[in-house]
Amino acid sequence: MTSNISYEQAMIFVEQAFRAQSQGQLGEAIQLYQRSLEVHPTAEAHTYLGWAYSLLGRYDEAIEQCELAIVVDPEFGNPYNDIGAYLIELGKWEEAVPWFEDALEAQRYEAPHFPHVNLARTYEQLGKFKSALEEYDKALAIAPLYRPARDAKYALLGRLN
Questions:
Q1: Strand, coil or helix: what is 134?
Q2: Where are the domains of the chain?
Q3: Is residue 24 scored above 60 in pLDDT?
Q4: How many other C-beta atoms can be found within 10 angstroms of the C-beta atom of residue 34?
Q5: Residue 58 near residue 32 (C-beta atoms within 8 A)
Q6: What is the pLDDT of residues 100-142, one digit of tens each?
Q7: Where are the alpha helices (DSSP H) in 23-113?
Q8: What's the topology of domain 1-99?
Q9: CB atoms within 10 A of CB 139
Q10: Of 3, 59, 58, 56, nearest in space to 27 by CA
Q11: Are 42 and 70 in contact (CB under 8 A)?
Q12: Could you tell me which residues come within 8 angstroms of residue 149 by beta carbon, excluding any fewer than 6 positions away?
């Protein structure tokens, strides 16, 4: 019973941290994510703490938090995708590919079209245009109204024609 209560309390801190982060209050968000982790470690708190670190350009710490999230819950897709995104920010395009592929295999994912879009962007950067278009199409099959995927796909088609 205590475990369930601590999990619920931890998720309340995650929600508060997410709101603070959405309002640009990164310091407060980081503190709240850390409090959440002290109460009950969750993949969400680790992943979102990593995201907050990434917004400060602290990519090594962001990747470390995502790796911890994967240990807590290997079925949560967000941290795999986020590691790939941070590697892109570091210019490590090739290294990002397997992380996006792992994200696509995850059983639990809040935005399953994101790794398709990120993988498409990566393939574009690597000159694998056919694969990029296929990934944009997969993203749009999941989220037909996701404008960044649609815009990127048509921009790529325009460059290829």
A1: helix
A2: 1-99, 111-161
A3: yes
A4: 15
A5: no
A6: 999 999 999 889 999 999 999 999 999 999 999 999 999 999 9
A7: 26-39, 43-55, 59-72, 78-89, 93-105
A8: 1.25.40
A9: 26
A10: 56
A11: no
A12: 113, 116, 117, 120, 136, 139, 140, 143
